[in-house]
Amino acid sequence: QVQLVESGGGLVQAGGSLRLSCVASGSIFSIDVMGWYRQAPGKQRELVASITRGGSTNYVDFVKGRFTISGDNAKNTVYLQMNSLKPEDTAVYYCNADIPTQWGLRRYWGQGTQVTVSS
Question: Would you list the DSSP string of the chain?
């Protein structure tokens, strides 16, 4: 079994910063991609950023220049540094990991961490 546990969410004022962490544990040989998604009330879950095992990163436009994703392969951990936060960044942030298994590539999700940005 694989588990992903996020931490670092909370309440912050607009313009502030938060750093999210996500640790994957369990029967893991390697992780192809780790990423962060978010879901605001009444909206669909959307990609925020992702990082491959080789370190290639991908960001959606609305976080470019404000958020930075990084990873530690040895620790099966991914981070999301969020700066210049806006009220519209308020959402539950979910970590995911794409892990090769004997049945093919499988995506795992964390339980989510709440980020609230006050104006």
Answer: -EEEEEE--EEEETT--EEEEEEEEES-S--SEEEEEEE-TTS--EEEEEEETT--EEE-GGGTTTEEEEEEGGGTEEEEEE-S--GGG-EEEEEEEEEEETTEEEEEE---EEEEEE-
